[in-house]
Structure prediction request, 267 residues.
Amino acid sequence: MAALLNPLMSEDRWEISDTPARCAFAADTRDMGMLDDVFVPEATCDLGCAGEPHRRDAVKALFLQLLETDDATQRSMTTSLVSATPGRALARTSGHWNGNRPAPDRIEIASGTDASGPATKGAR
Amino acid sequence: MAEPLTPEDRWEISDLLARFGFASDLKDMSMLDEVFVSEATGNFGPAGAPEGLDAIKATILLVLDPLDATQHSITTSLARRTPTGAHARTYFVAHHVLGGEVFSVAGTYEDELTQRDGKWLLTHRTINPTWTGGNPAVLGLEL
Prediction:
């Protein structure tokens, strides 16, 4: 078993777990300003078939584009695991996404997100 | 400038949020003594705006007591220090079961907290529903 080279402090864990939470609230409240405390300016984001924006401004623009057809959304972040290597961290977080469209159908998506250290502002 | 919340503060606030969920699902209102200050207030939307811990307990029981079962899941949450204590914003999904029918309500808790005798407690809770699903008749509603 590999030794843990750089165990995270409790403060780090809270700061890292706040990052996907802040991203969820930013998306659901359509407050893209909150993403300034989620992504570094040069961050990239792999959103699967929705796109792969490069840089924070492009991430914001794509978020807004994807969300404009929903009346309301709720991104519930659940299981999360954070691992660290020197100078960076990897967080894997499961989420349950719920969106209400103007049409009668409601979509629910269970998904996982990975955030690696250099792409997130909270990483050290 | 006030000091940021410590990891110990965050864990205690996290437990407090969970305790409300378990208190509701177990219908154990005594657990709310470790959630709210005695003079706490609530804005629970259609369920009312109770003032004082006893009124909060009565309001919750009025809604939940007739039900067969409930489950309050607490998910995404952020907490930050404020001049008077702390503020927490937390997602919930609450499933209400009666006679095999389910009505789900999901939304956001907006909580104001204070530290009293070294313990974090809620002074005010606002419940903002975001979406519902299932059979509203479970809660006696017509949507």
Observations:
- The radius of gyration of chain B is 15 Å.
- The mean pLDDT of chain B is 95.
